[in-house]
Amino acid sequence: MIVGLCALLILGGVLYLGHADLSGWCDLAAEAASDALDREIRIAGRCEPDIGFPTHLLIEEVTISNAPWSAEPVMARVGHFAATLDLWSLIDRPIRISGIRLLDAEVLVESNASGASNWAFDLAEKEEARPPEEGELPLIIGEAEIRDLRFLSRKEGEDRRTLSVEELLLEQRGDGMINLQGAGDVNGEAFALAGEIGPFAELLDAGSVSAEVEGSLLGSEVTLRASFDGLAEFLDPLVELSAQGPDLAAVTDSLGLPDLGEGEFRLTGLLSGASLAEEVEVSLQASTQLLEAEVDGRLSSALDPAGFEGPIAVSGGDLDAVLRIFGVKDFPAEPFQATGSMRWNQLDLAFEGVDGEIGAMPLQGSVALSFAGPTTDYDVDISLQGPDFSVPGRLTALDLPPEPFYVVGRVRSVGSGI
Fold this sequence. Notes:
Blueprint: H1 2-19, H2 23-37, E1 41-43, E2 47-50, E3 55-65, E4 74-85, E5 95-111, E6 139-155, E7 161-172, E8 178-186, E9 189-198, H3 200-205, E10 209-217, E11 220-228, E12 238-245, H4 248-255, E13 265-273, E14 280-288, E15 291-299, E16 307-316, H5 319-325, E17 336-345, E18 348-358, E19 361-370, E20 377-386, H6 390-393, E21 405-412
Parallel strand pairs: 5-6
Antiparallel strand pairs: 1-3, 2-3, 3-4, 4-5, 6-7, 7-8, 8-9, 9-10, 10-11, 11-12, 12-13, 13-14, 14-15, 15-16, 16-17, 17-18, 18-19, 19-20, 20-21
């Protein structure tokens, strides 16, 4: 009896709202959202709620004002948003949205000199929501279509970077995982991707999520597998990455990375730890035209890396070509291999306990490079022996005889000389 009465009341309300003038509802909704975010939200275009079974919502030209310290007045704009809702699911959970369509949107992410983000809201206090029952999805979205979405990212003193999503299609499966497929560009370089991420309920709560995505970027093939036990704070990350492509220089140039040479490359990596914001364990294997390298160690932070320390093994066919990348010249153009310990911070790079060979010459020692000045400074302690003394003679511009030799010493840069 009570259930039937509630159903009649809901049906009557829907019939009334379906014929009522709801134009004022949009202004009230924008005002409530503005108060909650402490940012002005405007709806300058159409706002057409169509109450019924199902219920449709259309909103156009929505803007969210930016942080007061920013020179940009708007931090987000949506040209077109449409959604279809199963109204009865508001009573009979989970809430079901059969479709979402987002077109022509732009999001600006920036930070000021003190590191404050424009997306840091002073949210109004809200009543704690009822947690969903175990196994219940609080929200189900059947399909989502996103087109012409642009992300702009900028930090104080750095150039603006862009991520444009030409098309992104999302479909939620029965197990809560989301199938995704999309294409777009990063700083003008095309990308495509396909894979899965979820579960959706955990994404909403920023809880335990996983993702497996394959795609192409900058002419390279990329595979990413990742999981977090706490997405909100990037807790307990386990990230596996593999990438390979025909042009390493195109990748480093586009991503703003240091010059690491040209030609084909292959990279595999594993990252784990308590949090991406804290020290993490890193394992990397890299293969390029210039060298093969394997690194295991500790990175200061995956979100803002400022230092690394750990063992390294490296080999290649031309030592001079590799060191010229770091601004160091006049080393022998010989095959090399070495193992040791690597230590890096933003201004210095050091290799300690080095044990290896340059050509036919056994090598032991350490290498320290500094990038603090206008030119790269270096300091090398060596223990070197071999069959041809003229090879290390090139480092000191001396004409040494091609005789067997043994040398213990130090080579360091002094201004523009050695």
